[in-house]
Amino acid sequence: MAPVARLRNVVLDCPDPRALARFYADVGGGRPKDDDPDWVVLQIPAGPRLAFQSAPGYSPPQWPRADHDSQQFHLDFDAGSTWEEVEAAQEKVLELGARLLHKEDKEDFRVYADPAGHPFCLCRIEPGDRAPVVERP
Questions:
Q1: What angle do the packed helices 17-28 and 83-95 form, to 10 degrees?
Q2: Among 28, 99, 121, 125, whose Cα sits 20 to 30 Å from the Cα of 114?
Q3: Neighbours of 55 (CB within 10 A)
Q4: pLDDT of 68-82, one tens digit each?
């Protein structure tokens, strides 16, 4: 079956679109296009296009919850195939302003909150499980 539409952006509401776009550019790469202070777009190299939208009265999701402040979705980032690589990535995202929410050594991921409170994960991957790199025109 042919798709009805093509995914354009993953959009995150936040209080400061420029600041959050810079955070994710530092985590995943790319340069934010911020002509409009209320709407900033970031193309992550070989990854998704993220957009950050100003939301007056923004209230961050609480992780994990199932009520009105629940997480609606989250972003996963491959951080390496060893725990040393994940630890190095963790150190960097914490320096950038992330907050650790969940760490359990028997799991292959750790959960963080970005500076606006959105959950995201750094994942340890098996060498054969890396997502294919897709070159974008």
A1: 160
A2: 125
A3: 14
A4: 666 567 888 989 999
